[in-house]
Amino acid sequence: MGLYTRVIENKFAGTILMKDLENNKILASIIVAGLIALICGKIANGLYHPVTEPEKRGFQVEVAQVGAEGEEATETVEEVIDIPALMAAASVEEGQKVFKQCVSCHTPEQGGAHKLGPNLAGVVNAKQASKDGYSYSDSLKEIGKTWTYDELFAFLKKPRKYASGTKMSFAGIKKPEQIANVIKYMESN
After folding, report:
1. pLDDT for residue 141
2. Cα–Cα distance measured from residue 48 to residue 66, given in angstroms and rounded to the nearest whole number
3. How far from 63 is each of 13, 73, 83, 164, 186, CA to CA, in Å?
């Protein structure tokens, strides 16, 4: 007796054999689909893979090397500013316009009240952190210099660089001409 005749003789066996064939078809379909996906992936990688790799991947960020004692080991190039020439060309009116970004924290008038920052009347050539009634940050007290043009330029350009830990949250004035104008305006009050 062959396979065909056994299936016919036992009607339940035919049902079982058909279910096995159906399961085999499903399993074979899954395997074929997986193989097709795998082959397509390999072909796509072969077609679109770059021929040469870049020397460096991504964007290279330059980080300053720090020495054993914590100071920077790299050279920094500072912009040379001719402060006396800028101060000679400075304008009180232009300084008043630029100072508008300071009025939320400072008052420029003589005898004006302290706000978030101290009153700035008479600050040019005055001792740093010396206004009565204002609580200065320790970092500014420790510097203890006089507010000369040079010191004011350095502070107004980047306050946090000049005195790390300062209470002044202002990022600084980028243009040296504007700094000179603001100093000229503060000097006039």
Report:
1. 87
2. 42
3. 77, 11, 30, 20, 38
Unique residue bearing structure tokens 């007290």: 141
- Please state the rounded mean pLDDT for residues 87-104: 91
Amino acid identity at 149: Y
Residue 172, pLDDT > 70, answer yes
Query: What's 1's DSSP letter?
Result: -
For residues 46-74, b (16+ Cβ closer than 10 Å) or e, as one string?
eeeeeeeeeeeeeeeeeeeeeeeeeeeee
User: By three-state DSSP, how is residue 118 classified?
Assistant: coil
Distances (CA, A) of 161 to 32, 153, 171, 177, 182: 65, 12, 10, 20, 19
| Beta carbons within 8 Å of 146's beta carbon, 6+ residues apart | 125, 126, 127, 128
φ and ψ of 159, to 5 deg: -55, -40
From residue 81, how far is each of 77, 86, 97, 184, 186 by CA, in Å?
12, 8, 22, 16, 20
- Please give the angle made by the CA atoms of 164, 156 and 112, to the nearest 5 degrees: 100
**To the nearest whole number, what is the mean pLDDT of the chain?**
81
